[in-house]
Amino acid sequence: MLNIRFIIKMLGMMFILETLFMLAATAVAFLYKGSDFYPLLQSSGIMFGTGVLFTLIGLRANEHTAGRREGMLTVSLTWALFSLLGMLPFYLGGYIDNITDAYFETMSGFTTTGSTILTDIETLPHGILFWRSLTQWQGGIGMIVFTVALMPIIGGGATQMFNAETPGITHERFRPRVTQVAKRLWGVYLFLTIVLIGMLWAGPMNLYDAVNHALTCISTGGYSTKNASIAYWDSAYIEYVITAFMFIGATNITLIYFFFNGNPKRLFKDEEMRWFFWFVLIITAMTTAWIMYRGIVDDFGTAFRESIFQVVTLVSTCGFATADYIPWGPFFWLLALVLMVVCGCAGSTCGGLKMGRFVILAKNLFNEFKKQTHPHAIIPVRMNGHAISGDIVHRVLAFAFAYIALIFVSCMVLMLDGMGFEETIGATISSISNVGPGLGSLGPVGNYADVPTVSKWFLSFLMMVGRLEIFTVLTILLPGFWKQ
């Protein structure tokens, strides 16, 4: 039987912690004397009151009976309810005038998707924009992981929540206790954010913009404070710095920890990382050659800069923009879809299939060709010199099938709601992979304001499914999940 009290208690604790982040945005609103001060303050009160109520209801929860089901349900409800309460500043302040758009914008933030319904971002006050950026920063490595780091203070249940939130972290844990793992992950994440703030501030960005873009870059979220996104600054320095940190955000964060902890060889010897590096480099070269061949850009330096930025922003699922890639033609659209499907490394802040799974699928396919001529040979899939168990290969195949099947089903749903073919394909893959921009009118210079209402709710659901790597959310929809 499900431990409902444990789930309610954990949700309450996270709402209370989330109040601190919303109060930080409230402080920014107060500092800039914006009209958003009272909506943010009211929302903080509602968030805190809900957290206290939930905590009191679950006060006597038996934490020892919490298992995987409780962890999966807690994590799924966290994203759904955080988006519900997190949308309040937008809605109460009148910055987004309907619940559908407010929920879509907030879910897009917490899942680090970066899709937006806003048509004029620069008219929003500073506190609201900061709250918008904070939702992505928290969603990057996961509010759950932050909560797990504080488990010694708020109580048990860490392992169930950590496993449900971070199914992509495949490398061995570098500390015996899961709370120690979470603390170190957040330490690395915070350190990279601070470094990026300093580097952006050293360029043409002011401190406020540097903080906001650092929050949404390292989380590979992509929200900006400007309508033109990164193109607003027209700065090669800013673009290369952002490109580098989007690439870092798409890298396994445990390997980054080892890099800074005196063991950089793990990062460079990791097979998934090497595949990812060459994948990005090859598609960047193809894109550079393509846009020069088409005469879109004549100068090689500019062509390379635009190409690598667009390639990295798509493969990292960040969604920043320096150019509109829709006029680049169908050849690049196809490359964009490939980037949006494969995405970054396991254990990163990216969505999508993940490079680790892609490598396993590619090697398994190659092995099947070998078995055609050597049918009795036992040829295991190897990663980093170690044989991958058949169980892991089967799980990867199951994930890939579920991912592709979900894309097909979702496309049918959106088309039934009246969306166009290009927009449907782009929006579906973009939402499941948490990328942000799509194709057609939903490209990097477009937005989701005109998407039908039903489609917005469905895309919000897809964002959450993709953020939690499909199985976590879909499993709780099956009748067997609720049986004793």
TrEMBL record:
K(+) binds at residues 112-113, 221, 317, 434-435. It is found in: Cell inner membrane. It comes from the Bacteria. GO terms for molecular function: metal ion binding; potassium:chloride symporter activity. It is a multi-pass membrane protein. The keyword Transmembrane applies. InterPro entries: Cat_transpt, TrkH. GO terms for cellular component: plasma membrane. The keyword Plastid does not apply. Keywords: Cell inner membrane, Cell membrane, Ion transport, Membrane, Metal-binding, Potassium, Potassium transport, Transmembrane, Transmembrane helix, Transport. Its main location: membrane. It holds the Pfam family TrkH. The chain crosses the membrane at residues 12-32, 38-59, 71-92, 141-164, 185-203, 237-260, 275-293, 331-353, 392-416, 457-482. Belongs to the TrkH potassium transport family. This is TrkH family potassium uptake protein. It comes from Parabacteroides acidifaciens.
